[in-house]
Amino acid sequence: QDEETQHSLECIQANQIFPRKQLIREDENLQVPFIELHGESTEYVGRAEDAIIALSNYRLHIKFKESVVNVPLQLIESVECRDIFQLHLTCKDCKVIRCQFSTFEQCQDWLKRLNNAIRPPSKIEDLFSFAYHAWCMEVYASEKEQHGDLCRPGEHVTSRFKNEVERMGFDMNNAWRISNINEKYKLCGSYPQEIIVPAWITDKELESVASFRSWKRIPAVVYRHQSNGAVISRCGQPEVSWWGWRNADDEHLVQSVAKACASDSRSNSNRLMNGNCSRDFSNGGDLSDVEFDSSISNASGAESLAIQPQKLLILDARSYAAAVANRAKGGGCECPEYYPNCEVVFMGMANIHSIRKSFQSLRLLCTQMPDPGNWLSALESTKWLQHLSVLLKSALLVVHAVDRDQRPVLVHCSDGWDRTPQIVALAKLLLDPYYRTTEGFQVLVETEWLDFGHKFADRCGHGENSDDLNERCPVFLQWLDCVHQLQRQFPCSFEFNEAFLVKLVQHTYSCLFGTFLCNNAKERGEKHTQERTCSVWSLLRAANKAFKNLLYSSQSESVLYPVCHVRNLMLWSAVYLPCSSPSTPADDTCAPYPVPGSSPDDQPLGRLPKTRSFDNLTTACDSSVPTTNRRSSDPSLNEKWQEHRRSLELSSLGNPGDDPFDGDSLSKQGRALVGAELSVAAGVAEGQMENILQEATKDDVGLEEHLRGSLETVGKGDEIALDREKRTENLHG
């Protein structure tokens, strides 16, 4: 009864709290040039030079004669007037949009409207995700069950913590325990309510440790290697300060993590010998003879393991100089003398200010007239790929320690909510095939990024009164870029494709969904975002074939060891370069609810076809079949299709209006403003970056050997890919 009452109230709120605004037309003959989403209300429709421009409470839509610009308002970072009649829009995902007007007054009017529209909200309910959900509730009130599945996370999501504890095989009887010390976030506002700690550590000790760690972010265990019992923990920096403070409980907790690993490993070996192992190993299959023999041999030294636990690795994401400098602000790093049986390593990762500066340099490079002779050196000067390389190396160090050396690892940076989740989430992705499935990736993002308090509202700039530009930084985007690099090196290891990641980038900022609102789980609970907004995972669910990787094999490598050198990394053209995105950021057909009066096959006015996956690759590669709906970076295509794609790209350089790409369409008018520079940028950048990978593959024998080794498990499809790669090398050589 209470549930039905609440449902009725939500339906009433849609009309009263989110009323539609009156449409203002510059010309009475103008019509809204797109199909509105539920709760979307178009406020202005006018004319630009050779275009129709419309502004709603969700998007900016510019319809040119043969193309459109369709961008969510929260994806726009800044708007400025250039050359008197031109608006220059800079987006948070690296795109730049230009729009020309006939008069100065027109340009100024739209400048004011857009600056008002993209301003951070004074209250969170001003974000479109709340209006969207409320109107969806009203429209689909009669379809309660279906609506519940789409708008609210399922039971498997809400219970993900306990599921993960069971899946990873923690010994909750002797080695570990779940502490509820943070129930109702009374200890730490940016931590989850339940955390895993060594079994013998009391809550009183945890309170003492919290007083010594930055923002009370105490060491918490987040991953256990299912074969050897080594764990990954994360925390904030110790507050050593210039006075050199130390905390006996903190030192005891860190050492206890290593001891609990030894105890867990011993009990795991005993369970194996007694035949009571009920959990899955590696790829989820039966325990192999090799794993069993290894477990037996480890069990023989169980007592010595318990007495002499493995040396714990403390991985500090910062440089040593930065860590010491933090002592001036009350922070610092662990002193090895006070943490026996621990090794401290500094990775030298840049802070958010350096990453923001690097990203701005990358955005400038990707949107200006390219100089083919100096483009690669200009890309190098942005340092973006170098930052990715350091992040990958940091995660790989964690993987090597946990998987090969069987050592526990503790990761932290300064506060523990930027570089720390980058390293930990990437390491878990490399270690565990489960996180490379669509469901597992959702669990990974929600646990390491959302539950442990990455400040999405501040970093993305869509929080309440989040005007401080120094707090903004594409931290999550940088991590997704690393995931994309892994997809390219291991094309058969991920259940989801590149379009999945691109869509996740776009909806990190779009505010169509409530998944990435607020700075931590406590704030999301106080704002009731789970009950009042839709989840992005309703769009990116495993059943959505548009995001499925056709090359995925569940029998691919259990643990991934990528090549991290800069020369092996690729610029993510689908996100950073114009005219190369595999899907649109605001595709109505990608919303969790269909638009009234439309069918899934209908294309909205002025919209290019969305990305889809071919069921028949042979047909897909036939040059007689229309191919404009395939993205250029799709690894699912064979050599014949790649040759056909190159011919399409070359032809598109002569006529930008005929570009065969999916995604954010830069207008023909916009292209005319900058000549052919955008098309040339896409062609030169993508082509030369492909050459980088080819040259790096020739230089790096280790990568080729790794690829050849993976062929034995993934089958004939990869053999074809490697043959094609070798033929390409010979051609360029």
UniProtKB/TrEMBL annotation:
Entry annotated with the keyword Methyltransferase: no
Superkingdom in the source lineage: Eukaryota
Pfam families in the record: Myotub-related (PF06602)
Amino-acid positions noted as binding substrate in the UniProt annotation, renumbered to this chain: 326-329, 351-352, 413-419
Catalytic residues of the enzyme: 413
Keyword Zinc on entry: no
UniProt keyword list: Lipid metabolism
Domain Myotubularin phosphatase: 155-576
Region Disordered, residue ranges: 590-667
GO biological process: phosphatidylinositol dephosphorylation; regulation of autophagy
CDD domains linked to this entry: PTP-MTMR3
Gene Ontology MF term list: phosphatidylinositol-3,5-bisphosphate 3-phosphatase activity; phosphatidylinositol-3-phosphate phosphatase activity; protein phosphatase binding
Biased composition (Polar residues): 614-636
Any one Gene Ontology cellular component term annotated for this protein: cytoplasm
Stated family: Belongs to the protein-tyrosine phosphatase family. Non-receptor class myotubularin subfamily.
Name of protein: Myotubularin-related protein 3
Organism: Gavia stellata
